[in-house]
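A.,

Following up on our hallway conversation. Structure tokens first:
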């Protein structure tokens, strides 16, 4: 009796260990997206549906392929319909806050300025920066853009005086006088070029 009970327990352990990754995959790829979508729907946040393993990426790819034939007018700076047509469509369909999926990773898009300000000004650590690529961190370093928590506060404190409004006004005035001096020097050395430059600017 003891031998059969220990063999049953051993086989049960083997089955649990071998199905552990399978259970984890089912939780991450099926249950979690369902639960996250349901929770956000309860909060009033909708979005494109989750597709197993690939999320919203096939829809993004399809929309980009459809919009890739658009030609941007040379005088236009409206490149969003070509580069990110999915955001434009989803904002129109689901509102300024929506949920979409990068594979099995839920992503919230905020197009409401007040919510963006709230997220960027928040200091509780709930909205930490996500390092999608370790190479990006190596390239940019741990400066103000990528820092979180106490590091971010320290960097912000050091950089903040450089963006003081009075200091920026002084810099702009200084640059204006510098450009005026350069224009005066060009007018003295080459009056025809100075006149042509003024005509282009006006």
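Then the amino acids I'd put at each of the 202 positions:
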């Amino acid at each position: 009796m003891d031998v059969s009970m220990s063999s049953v327990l051993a086989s049960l352990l083997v089955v649990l260990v071998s199905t552990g990754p399978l259970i984890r995959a089912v939780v991450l790829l099926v249950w979690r997206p369902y639960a996250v979508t349901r929770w956000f729907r309860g909060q009033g946040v909708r979005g494109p549906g989750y597709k197993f393993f690939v999320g919203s990426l096939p829809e993004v790819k399809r929309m980009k392929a459809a919009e890739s034939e658009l030609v941007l007018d040379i005088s236009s700076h409206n490149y969003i319909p070509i580069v990110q047509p999915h955001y434009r469509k989803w904002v129109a369909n689901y509102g300024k806050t929506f949920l979409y999926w990068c594979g099995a990773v839920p992503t919230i898009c905020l197009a409401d300025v007040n919510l963006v300000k709230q997220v960027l000004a928040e200091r509780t650590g709930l909205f930490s920066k996500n390092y999608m690529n370790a190479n990006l961190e190596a390239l940019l370093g741990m400066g103000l853009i990528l820092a979180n928590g106490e590091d971010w506060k320290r960097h912000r404190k050091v950089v903040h005086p450089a963006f003081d409004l009075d200091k920026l006004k002084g810099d702009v005035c200084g640059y204006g006088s510098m450009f005026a001096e350069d224009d005066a020097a060009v007018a003295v050395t080459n009056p025809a070029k100075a006149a042509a430059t003024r005509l282009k600017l006006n």
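The beta strands are 97-102, 105-110. Curious whether your intuition agrees with the design.

B.
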